[in-house]
């Protein structure tokens, strides 16, 4: 019998190759406990806007619809109060100037604004007048007719004070402070 050196060599190469293929995956594989395969963690993302236009951030809600004003006059119609019953306003004036506040009112409901505003420092601002101004109807006005109440204040000296008004039913047991307006008056 003749030996074929090439055949033996081929067998040895084939056996070696098989052993390498069997051992390499075992030695290179990381050790981990048996169980279901681990899934990658993907952080959640927000969907893109449908319009493709940049969207402005949502502004924080404001406590009142009337923004601070550099003026000495403010007017708030009665239609604002059902949705914004407590309104804060900032007003500015110079010494000697008048501040005028006009608020919607409906006295036929039994409610009215306080005749005399509450002023935290009367040395800075003084109330000089208050009146009800009805719409041009017959006297007395038809039931349910609204109008306005107007206050005038005089700026006496530099400083900051608070002016407050309440919309209430003035009799004993009547609803109090149903609506309120608080004004920060800055006098220069």
Overall description:
By secondary structure, the chain is mainly beta. It has one helix spanning 5-28, and strands at residues 73-76, 86-93, 98-105, 112-113, 118-119, 125-134, 147-155, 159-168, 179-187. The N and C termini lie far apart (123 Å).
CATH architecture call of the domain at 73-187: Sandwich
Global structural class: mainly beta
What's the CATH C level of the domain at 73-187?
Mainly Beta
- What characteristic shape results from the CA principal axes? elongated
Spans of 5+ residues with little confidence (pLDDT < 50)?
62-69
CATH topology call of the domain at 73-187: Immunoglobulin-like
Count of β-strands? 9
* Average pLDDT level: 78
The helix/strand series, from N terminus to C terminus, equals: HEEEEEEEEE
What is the CA-atom radius of gyration, in angstroms? 41 Å
Question: Helical percent range?
Answer: 10-25%
Distance between the termini: 123 Å
Strand content: 25-35%
Q: Main beta sheet: strand number and arrangement?
A: 5 strands, mixed
Q: Figure out the total of helices.
A: 1
């Amino acid at each position: 019998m003749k030996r074929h050196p090439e055949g033996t060599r081929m067998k040895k190469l084939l056996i070696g190759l098989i052993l390498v293929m069997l051992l390499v995956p075992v030695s290179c594989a990381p050790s981990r406990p048996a169980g279901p395969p681990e899934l990658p963690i993907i952080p959640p993302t927000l969907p893109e806007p449908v319009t493709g236009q940049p969207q402005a951030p949502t502004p924080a809600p404001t406590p009142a619809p009337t923004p601070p004003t550099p003026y000495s006059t403010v007017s708030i119609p009665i239609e604002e109060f059902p949705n914004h019953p407590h309104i804060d306003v900032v007003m500015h004036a110079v010494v000697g100037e008048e501040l005028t506040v006009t608020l919607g009112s409906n006295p036929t409901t039994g409610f009215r604004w306080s005749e005399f505003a509450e002023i935290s420092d009367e040395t800075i601002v003084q109330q000089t007048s208050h009146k009800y101004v009805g719409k041009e109807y017959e006297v007395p006005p038809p039931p349910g007719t609204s109008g306005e109440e107007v206050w005038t204040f005089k700026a006496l000296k530099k400083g900051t004070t608070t002016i407050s008004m309440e919309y209430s039913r003035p009799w004993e047991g009547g609803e109090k402070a149903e609506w309120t307006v608080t004004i920060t008056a800055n006098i220069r």
